[in-house]
């Protein structure tokens, strides 16, 4: 019984660890990066240029995901919160498979 439980727990932990270790290829990161840049294409300001610089130099899907909030702020200042939410929520499909599904929350 203990051996069975041990195998079960190890199997569960290994599958979780393998999900976390999955990293996107360069082309996948490029696609995510381009989608995020496209979201802020009409934002012209110094903060927008700073954000573009951060997006271009982000090294992981997680870093790009965390830049969503900055993008939302810029877009909502230039247009409206509704437009910003639509654009940011449209990005979720680009991050699926690269982040923990619990992180992929939509903006209301």
How many domains? 1
How many E strands?
0
Amino- and carboxy-terminal Cα gap: 47 Å
Counting H and I runs of at least 4 residues, what is the number of helices?
7
- How would a textbook summarize the main sheet? none
Instruction: Based on Cα principal axes, name the global outline.
Output: elongated
Q: What oligomerization state is this entry in? A: single chain
> Could you name the ranges where pLDDT drops below 50 across 5 or more consecutive residues?
none
Report the portion of residues in β strands.
under 5%
Q: Give me the Rg, rounded.
A: 18 Å
Question: Into which percent range does the helicity of residues fall?
Answer: over 70%
What would you call the structural class? mainly alpha
Order of helices and strands: HHHHHHH
Mean pLDDT across residues: 89
What's the gist of this structure?
The protein is an all-alpha fold and 108 residues long. It has seven helices and no strands.
Q: What would you note in describing this structure?
A:
The mean pLDDT is 89. The relative contact order is 0.13. The chain contains 7 helices and no strands. It is elongated and about 65 Å long. Helix 5 (68-78) packs antiparallel against helix 6 (81-90). It starts with a helix and ends in a 13-residue tail after the last helix. The chain has one domain (24-103). By secondary structure, it is an all-alpha fold.
């Amino acid at each position: 019984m203990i051996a069975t439980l041990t195998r079960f727990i190890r199997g569960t932990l290994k599958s979780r660890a393998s999900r976390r270790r999955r990293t996107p290829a360069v082309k996948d990161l490029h696609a995510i990066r381009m989608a995020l840049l496209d979201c802020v294409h009409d934002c012209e300001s110094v903060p927008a240029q700073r954000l573009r610089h951060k997006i271009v130099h982000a090294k992981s899907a997680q870093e790009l995901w965390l830049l969503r909030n900055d993008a939302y702020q810029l877009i909502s200042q230039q247009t409206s919160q509704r437009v910003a939410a639509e654009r940011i929520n449209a990005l979720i499909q680009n991050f699926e498979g690269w982040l923990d599904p619990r992180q992929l929350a939509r903006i209301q």
